[in-house]
Protein: UDP-N-acetylglucosamine 2-epimerase (non-hydrolyzing)
Amino acid sequence: MSGALAAYYRKIPVSHVEASLRSYNICHPWPEDVNRKNIGNIADQHFAPTKMSVEAMIKENIPDQQITITGNTVIDALLSTVEKRQKSSIKRRPRKYSDKKSSE
Structure:
């Protein structure tokens, strides 16, 4: 938030990654939602993770030429990891879990 404000005041273009992820409650479950809304107001570029995020920004009157859909970084990383794991020639041994309770 402070980086975006500093850039704004120095007339440096602001880019907002994961733009328009909204809970529509600035206190729950993510208090940083208020930061996303504020940065969205000053950003020059908005990188949206989903089509739903793009639609939300258009409803908030953000010009669509400032919006780029990028995908969800967390989901993309998960899918990439799963794909690499499936292609890997390294086979992992299954973990063995003990039925015994640990002694205290």
Q: What stands out?
A: The helical segments are 2-9, 33-42, 51-59, 73-87. The chain has four helices and three strands.
